[in-house]
Every structure is written in structure tokens, then in C-alpha cells.
Amino acid sequence: MSSNDLIDRKYYSLYIGNLSADIRRKELCQYLEHYSQVDECQLFEANHRRWTCFAFVLMRTPDSINRLMSTRPHYLDNRRLYLKRALPDQCSNKIEHFLTSESVLIHFKDFKNQEIHEPNFNDENIRNYFQTYGYILNLYLLKNNRCVIEYNDYDSVDCIILDSPHYFNSHELQIDKYYSTEQLKQLDRMFTHNHELPSLGAGEDGEQVEQFLHSRRYLNMRIRLLNDSIESVKISNEIKLETIHQGFLLTINRRKELLEQIKELNKQCQILHEKNEAIKENNQNRLHLNSKLEKNYQQQITDQQNKQIQWRQKIESLQEQT
Question: Where does the record place the RRM domain (predicted)?
Fold first, then answer.
């Protein structure tokens, strides 16, 4: 690899989980080399602290990572592999290294220390930038210049985190995976069902389990999950309130549109009514005029008939004289 390749090493790394307990490094590499050459492959076998095998792989080109992710799902030894881009330490916290999420929480990195006013931080500008990472299902604008974007694929979120830092009008953005309350509950159940705890059947005694339960690592993990759960509930409530608010605004706007349409229809009805009245008046005038003309014609016919009678009488009188 060149020096530039080493700098961008994060774009070449892949995490592969749910591997078979019988998998061998050579077998895994042979499968991956259908997409590109494998430079490094670290295979971690299952033991009493890990319930499945997993591996970290360094591919020769970043395009091979894209091909692997775009051709999911992958199967090896009749097991569906769990693939995700490996995230470096500076890109995310510990939990985000292994958990996936289709949603991302975005806010200004220093918004807690100083208030940032960004009127251009709106749906259109955010969508135009972040839709390059994948198809956006939903975008929720929250208070304090924050937003949650939901994609149709968790790989879009990992790509956003890998491309950090992101900037909006010279302000650096803080990018974090957003986990729903239900996702965090599932994670909590996963840790409390002996997936992370030492197993007594694996040669551990009760004292060792107790030590682990009181270890800094386990307590920090539980505290982090609790804090994330609280934050998730807050954001979830904000999303619900924002959804209700947007629905309320849509209802108000729709009502305004309907009122404007009704107003316009009333105007058109008034115009049609005035036209109808004018047509009625014209018809009445025509009927009155027709009636007068008919009387005049009848009178003219009567006059002509009388004249004819008079002329006939005169002719008869002249004939008698002669």
C-alpha cells in the first residue's frame, strides 16, 4: 500500500461476524478473494467470553468493500455472515463498532458550549447532502439544530461515520448512530442473558462471575446503556412530538387550502349566479319584445285583412254599378 492508502486504511477494513466455529482463516480468505485480494485477516475464535467467531479483514481496495456490502447477504458454511465496515476508534464509541443502526443523529459538535444559529439547517439542505450516502426513508428535524435521518440500509450510516468529519457552513457536525429504545432493550437483554458474562459451565466459578459483575468494564457498559436509553427516549419523544407537530401543521395548511378553495368556489358561484341573473333578464326582455312584436304582427295582419275586405266591397260595388 502507498502512504495515502495507509492514511485511508479505515476504508479498507471489514468486520465479519456470525462465522462458523469450524471456520479456518484460509477458507474465509478464499471466499473473500472472489471480490479482491485480502491483505490481512484476523480471526477470533469462540470461547467462554465470545459466543461466536468473528474476523477483522483488510482488503486490497476500498471498491472491494463496496462490492461485498452491495452483494449482501453472504453465506459460508451454511451460515449467513454479518458484514459491516470496521469503524476506527476516533470515528465512534465502543458500542457503535459492533452494533448497526439505520438511523443517524446529527447536530453541531459544539452546540452545548455555544448557541449556533443556522437558518439554513433545514430539511432541503440536509437531505441534499446526506442523500448521497443512500436512500433516506425519513428525516426528522429536532430542536437545537439537530436531526435524525433514517436510511433503508445500516451501511449508509457507517459510511457517514467513516467520512467524518462533516461540516455545515464551517461548523463541524457531530455524527452518532441513533438506536431506538427497543434496540437498546434488545442489547440489554443480550448482555443479561449470559452472552457477555462468564459461563460457569466453561470452568468459571461464582466468585469470578461476581468479580466480573462488579468490574469497571461491566459497570461502564451498563452505565453507557442506561445513558443511551435515556437519551433515546428523549429523542424518541422529540420525534413523536415533531411528527405530531408536522401533522398538525399539515392539517392547518390543508384546512387553509380548503378554505381558500371554498372561497374561490364561492366567488365562482357568485359570478355564475350573476351571469344566470343576467341571462334570465335577457330572456325576459326577449320574451317581452317577442310579445310586443307578436301583437304588432297580429295588428298588421288584422289591418291588412280589413283593407282587403274594404277593397273587395268597393270592387263589388263598382261591378254592380256597371
Answer: 12-88
